[in-house]
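Quick note —
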Amino acid sequence: MSDPLRTRFCALVGCELPVVQTGMGWVSGASLTAATSAAGGFGILAAVTMTPEQLLVAVRKVKDRTDRPFGVNFRADQPDLEERVAFVVSEGVRLVSFAGAPTKGAVARCHDAGVLVMPTVGARRHAEKVLEMGVDAVIAQGGEGGGHTGVVPTTLLLPAVVDAVGASIPVLAAGGFFDGRGLVAALAYGADGIAMGTRFLLTAESHVPAGVKVLYVAATPTDTVVTTALDGAPQRVIRTEVVDRIERSPKLLRFPRAAAAALRFRKETGTSFAALVKEGLAMKRNQDLTWSQVALAANAPMLIKATMVDGRPEVGILPSGQVAGVIDELPTVAELLARIRTDAELTLKRLGG
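Predicted structure written out below.
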């Protein structure tokens, strides 16, 4: 009898358990990514906020810690995407993920280099669009998910995406998952696995400062809010005084602050001013953004860095799925994945009578 937990996604990327650790900016570093893949899941290294030199070091750290497959997360409009893809392919990286729909050219560049592509979508029509581009798998994230998110809950989005593209490519479910029961539920909807961000953020290997993790663990399911005040796009975060203050601030004041943060982001990531302008033009064109929205989009990573790296929640933001409200401990990644497998197997046994 075949193992129901060995899905198409496992066969596609070479992992043992169909559980993906998403590429969370400033969070999914080498330690967390390596721990996830080593424990049988599929870790994704968050590389959007890394300089090329930092990317090189991080990829090789993962490889030093595990020989299991892993992925890297990029943004489709990064000006040096082609060079970054070429590097990770040369290092044997299996898959590139994109937060949102990539361009057709970005998908082609990845495939030409021999790497799989997996974007995240929040609507059925977006899944159909990326399927036409030739992507190899897709993450369907419901509104419960953290960071940039949509309005459709996972229980409605997931079956719609499975019906639209599931016959052609593996579909992973995201938004509200944290245990083995959730994995079985996703499989019942027709998905090929689950992707989790907040649950992996709250593990021992996550390098998020301990004081910040305490704030996540203390949160309830109703302590998050979806706001567009941070970068113009809906983003789920834990409600804090910082978020309330930004939402109350006049829109005219948000742009100059965001522009200053964009320049700080350039310094942090080693991006030249010319490349920053080129990237801004690409974002403006591909996402139909105003210049104010482009500046705000560069501001959000700095607000996240303030908490996830600097440990200063009093000046930064806390991207989070609603699932933070049901998490009350910080296991190792190996403990978490072993528990998910055991819970899934017991759930399947119970359902089988």
